[in-house]
């Protein structure tokens, strides 16, 4: 059994399936859809797979400054951020990840709220 969440869940292929399922939920949200109308979803899923892999202890890394740069022009609200975080947690649960692993990933995302939510 792997020593990281990334290893335990099955590596990049499983994380990519998780992220794809997550975005299916996000795109179904009337509140969140506006952020993705013109998005290149293939590229977005690739980037998010790397981000989630990194918070799971996988071989990828993202710093908060990069997250801030990408998200700053999007005007993401706290309510939208909270919904996205909730949908991610729900998706991780759907995939049967261990509760402690879900908590770790979810809290890692929550810690980055300041780099994602606009403070205009």
How would you describe what is shown here?
This protein is an all-alpha fold. The chain has one domain: Globin-like, CATH 1.10.490. Helices cover 64% and strands 0% of the residues. The chain is built from seven helices and no strands. It has helices at 5-9, 12-27, 41-55, 64-71, 78-94, 99-110, 113-116. Helix 2 (12-27) crosses helix 3 and helix 5 packs antiparallel against helix 6. The longest helix has 17 residues, at 78-94. The protein is globular. The mean pLDDT is 92.
What secondary-structure arrangement, pairings included, does this model have?
Elements: H1 5-9, H2 12-27, H3 41-55, H4 64-71, H5 78-94, H6 99-110, H7 113-116
Write a concise keyword list for the protein shown above:
single chain, 120 residues, mainly alpha, 64% helix, globular
Please provide a brief summary of the model:
The chain is mainly alpha-helical.
CATH architecture identity: Orthogonal Bundle
What integer value in Å does the Rg equal?
A: 14 Å
- Range of strand content: under 5%
**Which residues form runs of ≥5 with pLDDT under 50?**
none
- By oligomeric state, this entry counts as single chain
Judged by helices, strands and strand pairing, the structural class is mainly alpha
- Percent helix: 55-70%
CATH superfamily: Globins
